[in-house]
Design brief:
About 15% of the residues lie in helices and about 30% in strands. The two termini are about 30 Å apart. The protein is α+β, with helices and mostly antiparallel strands. It contains two helices and six strands.
Protein backbone atom coordinates (compact mmCIF):
# COMPACT_ATOMS: atom_id res chain seq x y z
CA UNK A 1 0.00 0.00 0.00
CA UNK A 2 2.79 2.44 0.87
CA UNK A 3 4.26 1.93 -2.59
CA UNK A 4 1.00 3.06 -4.22
CA UNK A 5 0.88 6.17 -2.04
CA UNK A 6 4.51 7.08 -2.79
CA UNK A 7 4.07 6.53 -6.52
CA UNK A 8 0.98 8.73 -6.48
CA UNK A 9 2.85 11.44 -4.54
CA UNK A 10 5.81 11.32 -6.93
CA UNK A 11 3.51 11.49 -9.97
CA UNK A 12 1.62 14.45 -8.51
CA UNK A 13 4.88 16.20 -7.66
CA UNK A 14 6.29 15.68 -11.16
CA UNK A 15 3.02 16.78 -12.77
CA UNK A 16 3.10 20.00 -10.75
CA UNK A 17 6.70 20.72 -11.73
CA UNK A 18 8.37 19.78 -8.42
CA UNK A 19 12.05 18.96 -8.67
CA UNK A 20 14.46 17.55 -6.10
CA UNK A 21 17.03 20.29 -5.69
CA UNK A 22 20.62 19.66 -4.76
CA UNK A 23 23.93 21.47 -4.71
CA UNK A 24 25.22 19.09 -7.40
CA UNK A 25 24.18 18.89 -11.03
CA UNK A 26 22.32 15.63 -11.44
CA UNK A 27 20.99 13.55 -14.29
CA UNK A 28 17.64 11.79 -14.25
CA UNK A 29 19.45 8.50 -14.86
CA UNK A 30 21.05 8.92 -11.43
CA UNK A 31 17.71 9.25 -9.60
CA UNK A 32 16.60 5.98 -7.97
CA UNK A 33 13.89 4.66 -5.68
CA UNK A 34 15.11 2.44 -2.86
CA UNK A 35 13.13 0.68 -0.15
CA UNK A 36 13.84 -1.17 3.04
CA UNK A 37 12.75 -1.88 6.60
CA UNK A 38 14.08 -2.24 10.09
CA UNK A 39 14.24 -5.66 11.71
CA UNK A 40 10.87 -6.48 13.35
CA UNK A 41 10.95 -5.83 17.11
CA UNK A 42 14.69 -5.04 17.10
CA UNK A 43 16.79 -1.89 17.33
CA UNK A 44 14.33 0.13 19.43
CA UNK A 45 15.78 2.30 22.19
CA UNK A 46 13.83 3.69 25.15
CA UNK A 47 13.33 7.44 25.17
CA UNK A 48 11.42 8.49 28.28
CA UNK A 49 8.50 6.55 29.74
CA UNK A 50 6.24 6.31 26.66
CA UNK A 51 8.64 6.93 23.80
CA UNK A 52 11.13 4.92 21.79
CA UNK A 53 13.20 5.46 18.68
CA UNK A 54 14.71 3.30 15.99
CA UNK A 55 17.37 4.11 13.40
CA UNK A 56 16.84 2.87 9.85
CA UNK A 57 19.84 2.23 7.62
CA UNK A 58 19.78 3.10 3.91
CA UNK A 59 23.45 2.35 3.24
CA UNK A 60 22.48 -0.30 0.68
CA UNK A 61 20.84 2.41 -1.44
CA UNK A 62 24.11 4.21 -2.19
CA UNK A 63 22.71 7.75 -2.10
CA UNK A 64 25.19 10.62 -2.47
CA UNK A 65 22.87 13.19 -0.83
CA UNK A 66 19.99 13.01 1.64
CA UNK A 67 17.01 11.52 -0.25
CA UNK A 68 13.30 12.20 0.10
CA UNK A 69 11.98 9.59 2.55
CA UNK A 70 8.48 8.26 3.23
CA UNK A 71 7.98 5.79 6.08
CA UNK A 72 5.27 3.86 7.87
CA UNK A 73 5.03 1.62 10.92
CA UNK A 74 4.08 -2.05 10.63
CA UNK A 75 3.95 -4.96 13.04
CA UNK A 76 2.09 -7.78 14.70
CA UNK A 77 -0.41 -5.60 16.52
CA UNK A 78 -1.28 -2.31 18.17
CA UNK A 79 1.03 -0.34 15.87
CA UNK A 80 -2.02 1.56 14.62
CA UNK A 81 -2.28 3.16 18.09
CA UNK A 82 1.29 4.53 17.99
CA UNK A 83 2.16 7.97 16.71
CA UNK A 84 5.28 9.13 14.90
CA UNK A 85 5.81 6.31 12.40
CA UNK A 86 5.94 8.67 9.43
CA UNK A 87 7.91 11.53 11.02
CA UNK A 88 11.50 11.47 9.76
CA UNK A 89 14.26 12.75 12.08
CA UNK A 90 18.01 13.17 11.48
CA UNK A 91 17.93 12.17 7.80
CA UNK A 92 21.26 11.64 6.05
CA UNK A 93 22.22 9.85 2.87
CA UNK A 94 22.75 6.66 4.90
CA UNK A 95 20.08 6.65 7.63
CA UNK A 96 17.21 8.32 9.46
CA UNK A 97 15.48 8.06 12.84
CA UNK A 98 11.85 7.51 13.82
CA UNK A 99 10.50 8.42 17.26
CA UNK A 100 7.38 6.57 18.40
CA UNK A 101 4.95 7.36 21.19
CA UNK A 102 2.43 4.94 22.68
CA UNK A 103 0.33 5.38 25.84
CA UNK A 104 1.42 1.98 27.16
CA UNK A 105 5.11 2.53 26.32
CA UNK A 106 6.53 2.36 22.82
CA UNK A 107 9.55 0.26 23.66
CA UNK A 108 7.47 -2.49 25.29
CA UNK A 109 4.86 -2.46 22.53
CA UNK A 110 7.47 -2.35 19.75
CA UNK A 111 9.42 -5.32 21.03
CA UNK A 112 6.39 -7.37 22.14
CA UNK A 113 4.47 -6.91 18.88
CA UNK A 114 7.47 -6.93 16.50
CA UNK A 115 6.96 -3.41 15.17
CA UNK A 116 9.15 -2.27 12.31
CA UNK A 117 9.54 0.69 9.98
CA UNK A 118 9.19 0.32 6.22
CA UNK A 119 10.43 3.10 3.97
CA UNK A 120 10.80 4.25 0.42
CA UNK A 121 13.48 6.79 -0.44
CA UNK A 122 14.04 8.70 -3.68
CA UNK A 123 17.45 10.23 -4.29
CA UNK A 124 20.57 10.45 -6.40
CA UNK A 125 23.33 7.87 -6.63
CA UNK A 126 25.59 9.74 -9.07
Amino acid sequence: MIYKVVILCVLLAVASGYQIKSQHKKHDACLITCSGWTEPGKGFQKEGSNDAYVDASMVHCGFIDTPVIVSSIHGGGYHWTASGGSAIYKPTRDSFRIYLRHALGSYTQATTHAWYIEYIAVGYVC
